[in-house]
Design brief:
Number of domains: 3
Strand content: 15-25%
Oligomer: single chain
Number of strands: 24
Structural class: alpha/beta
Distance between the termini: 13 Å
Number of helices: 14
Largest sheet: 6 strands, mixed
Helix content: 25-40%
Length: 545
């Protein structure tokens, strides 16, 4: 892209066993359109690396050490196969209620060592208010088990909600080295192509980007990067306020997300990973195992659309009948070598003992029903989200779907038919097949800074990074002081990441203050401030032509 306009685009088959190779192959093809590599200012990557790692389960085990304090039973917090519960408690203000037992910690570490587990995630309840216990356990681990990689939850997610913070630390430890290996490969590849001075970002689950080097410490932020790219691509194509569902129909899966008045709907509880909510900001979306390359078979006297991909569509050189071939023939779309789609449909119809019209109609109904059911199921989930409910209250009317935005390779074949079945308009663009790449390219950096101040105790804490600091003017500290402090830390983070241009984009999304009363007197105040550079597009991008 140049000045917000697409110059060239390339599509390459993804090799899930070696995503880096697919990435660099695509990059090399794109670079052929560049006359001078020095002109490239920014590279943004959307990758399913972390998603694939967690989905396949090909990762080293992680031991989770939890200090849950008092309250709910330990079983409620249990996560992973190797979970340990230790003594030690911090209250919600950050005061130590019960100290840790060093002998108990050593015994726990010895057991982890015997099992050969070399990754440890530590999470203490209210460690976002005081991470003293997490630090103590980490120091003991580094002393008695120096070969282990130890991660504190307050380092990666310094927010309330103990279970989500523990889950975030767990998955971060699980993917940390593999993600860093991917980053190393990217760095080496860019150096080999003389692009090592180019600004490089990774697309996060919330539709914003994070600098490549910064992402080393936050691999979980990149989970669902692929579906996030689809959502941002749908918005980038339309750039309006219509209430829309974005459907990205790829070769193997379809990603579905919601846009309310031009803004993507986020999940209020954080990204869900293997049935565990985390503190990873993400869009509210779903993926179903249905795509243009989904294979169609005749088994047990019935036509079935399988939840897997074996090859390309026949019209693109594949061997087996796929969803794309059926739509291609039935609606005379003339996609690829469409005669081959007709041939394979006729052969399949003979195998089933039906006419080609009967078999294609049956297959199309199966595909449309799967997509319709997925959309209806997601609306049930979306209705639970606060942003969805607020929209209905503010607008004093029920949410109404106004449009389906189709993106992905198979969208042109399926979306018009699906939209007709649902009785809503659809939107397709010449860039629909590459809309996820477009959304990735034009996404801007995002960051949330959460500040907690307790003037009675004289301290504050910051997320991200788990930074703690002291306050001097506790008696005079006001809401404006808290906002200034939050902005100051946001500016520092943006400067450290080389993102000074986005300082002016910051907005406050949370401003809360509470009085601390003892007897008849106010003895302090508690402030919670949230400031962010929210998801959006780079200034150069104003929409497609």
């Amino acid at each position: 892209m140049k000045s917000g306009t697409i110059i060239d685009s390339v599509k390459t088959l993804t090799n899930n066993s070696d995503i880096s190779a697919s990435l660099f192959s695509t990059l090399d093809k794109l670079l052929k359109s560049v006359t001078d590599l020095k002109l490239i200012e920014r590279i943004v990557i959307s990758t399913t690396t972390v998603t694939n790692l967690i989905t396949t389960g090909r990762l080293e085990p992680v031991a989770v050490i939890l200090l849950p304090g008092y309250g709910l039973p330990n079983s409620y917090y249990e996560i992973g196969e190797h979970c340990y519960f230790l003594k030690g408690a911090i209250d919600f203000r950050g005061n130590e209620v019960e100290s840790i037992n060093n002998d108990e910690v050593k015994k726990c570490l010895n057991d982890i060592k015997k099992k050969g587990i070399k990754r440890i995630a530590i999470a203490g309840k209210f460690s976002n208010r005081n991470n003293k216990h997490e630090k103590q356990v980490k120091e003991l681990a580094e002393k008695y088990y120096p070969d282990a990689f130890v991660l504190m939850s307050s380092e990666v997610s310094n927010q309330l909600n103990f279970r989500r913070r523990a889950a975030t630390a767990y998955y971060t430890a699980m993917t940390y080295f593999e993600w860093n290996s991917f980053v190393d490969n990217v760095v080496k590849a860019l150096q080999a192509r003389q692009l090592d001075n180019t600004e490089v970002h990774i697309l996060k689950a919330d539709g914003g980007t994070i600098p490549l080097e910064v992402s080393r410490d936050y691999p979980c932020q990149t989970i669902y990067s692929g579906p996030a790219a689809s959502t941002m691509g749908g918005i980038a194509l339309t750039m309006d306020k219509a209430n829309s569902v974005v459907i990205d129909i790829g070769g193997t899966t379809s990603d579905i997300s919601l846009i309310i008045e031009g803004q993507p709907l986020h999940v209020s509880k954080g990204a869900l990973i293997n049935e565990n909510f985390t503190h990873v900001e993400a869009f509210s979306l779903t993926s179903i195992p249905l795509g243009g390359d989904s294979q169609i078979v005749y088994e047990d006297n019935s036509v079935q659309v399988l939840n897997k991909r074996e090859d390309f569509a026949v019209c693109f050189g594949g061997k087996w009948l796929t969803v794309t071939d059926v739509f291609n023939h039935h609606y005379d779309l003339k996609i690829g070598e469409y005669q081959k789609s007709t041939q394979v449909v006729n052969e399949f119809a003979s195998q089933c003992g039906m006419s080609e019209g009967e078999v294609t109609s049956q297959i199309i109904e199966i595909v449309l029903s799967k997509l319709e059911n997925a959309i209806n199921s997601m609306f049930i989930e979306w209705e639970k989200e606060p942003a969805y409910k607020v929209w209905e209250v503010v607008n004093n009317r029920k949410f109404k779907l106004e449009r389906i935005i189709g993106i992905g390779a198979a969208a042109t074949a399926i979306i018009p038919v699906l939209a007709k079945k649902l009785g809503v308009p659809y939107y397709l663009h010449e860039y629909s097949p590459i809309a996820n790449a477009l959304g990735t390219a034009v996404a801007r950096p995002t960051i949330n800074v959460n500040l907690h101040v307790d003037t009675q105790l004289g301290y504050y804490s910051i997320e991200p990074g788990g930074h703690f600091g002291k306050i001097s003017n506790t008696n005079r500290f006001s809401l404006n002081d808290a906002k200034d402090l939050a902005l100051q830390h946001l500016n520092t983070i943006l400067n450290d990441r080389g993102l000074n241009d986005y300082v002016q984009e910051a907005t406050f999304y949370m401003e809360e203050q509470f009085n601390v009363i003892r007897g008849w007197d106010r003895i302090g105040r508690i402030f919670d401030i949230g400031v962010q550079v929210k998801p959006g597009f780079i200034k150069e991008y104003t929409g497609v032509v």
